[in-house]
Design goal:
This protein is an alpha+beta fold. The protein is 37% helix and 13% strand. Helix 2 packs across helix 3. The longest helix is centred in the N-terminal third of the chain and has 22 residues.
């Protein structure tokens, strides 16, 4: 009796090879997407684009579809425009200068938080820096509420109108001097620590009413209480040093 011929091993199915090739191509595709996601050196990426075009013989990056010109939203066109705009200017990644260091040798973010105008605006006559008796009483009443805290204060001055410019100062200078007069009063008469106070000159940029010749409500100083504490901004908030 003849022996049964052993069956030949079929080997790896053909679809597995095709599937493996497809996975490899997808992996390369996502690696390229990740590499192109942030354009730090556009001139170097332009060289990469030219190399890819030479290898594939394509113009436009649309896979196997022939294209006579690049669509405006294609990645290659975007990279080319980035390279043109950069020119010979150094990219951000090419700069080797050391940045300004803080206390922790790190970049610190701008402190955010809520802000509130306390006590209402302190009004000033046109072109004047003098605090009226009413304004002084207003500031003394406000100081009773904020004296014990450690929140940073912004003293924001404002100016407006032709009458305000009659004293010879421009809007920014006048608004700064008004804010400085309020800050000086709070420090000397109301015992508010000077370390808590920042002076802000808003000039004529934040009017409450839009009357070019009048605008009496715009000639004001606002005391703004912030959520930022003195300990966040001062290296020795309790003055324990020299």
């Amino acid at each position: 009796m003849a022996k049964r011929k052993p069956s030949e091993d079929a080997g790896i199915p053909e679809w597995v090879v095709t599937y493996g090739d497809m996975m490899s191509l997808l992996l390369c595709f996502f690696i390229l997407l990740s590499a192109f996601s942030e354009l730090k050196k556009p001139r170097e990426y332009q060289k990469v684009i030219e190399s890819i075009k030479e290898s594939l013989g394509l113009d436009g990056g649309l896979g196997m579809i022939n294209s006579f010109r690049n669509p405006s939203n294609s990645m290659i066109n975007h990279l080319r425009e980035q390279a043109k705009m950069a020119g010979d200017k150094p990219a951000r990644s090419d700069v080797n200068e050391q940045s300004i260091s803080g206390r922790d040798q790190t970049v610190e973010t701008i402190r955010e938080g809520g802000k509130w105008v306390m006590g209402g605006p302190v009004a000033f006559p046109a072109a004047s820096l003098e605090l009226s008796d009413t304004s002084k009483e207003q500031l003394r009443s406000l100081a009773e509420k904020i004296r014990g805290g450690d929140e940073r204060l912004e003293i924001k001055g404002h100016a407006w109108g032709l009458e305000d410019k009659s004293g010879g100062d421009d809007y920014r200078e006048l608004s700064f001097k008004r804010a400085a007069s309020v800050a000086t009063f709070l420090e000397s008469e109301c015992a508010i620590r000077s370390e808590r106070i920042s002076i802000v000159a808003a000039g004529n940029g934040e009017p409450l009413e839009l009357d070019q010749t009048g605008g009496s409500q715009n000639r004001r100083v606002e005391v703004v209480v912030t959520e930022v504490t003195l300990a966040e901004t001062h290296p020795d908030p309790d003055w324990q040093g020299n």
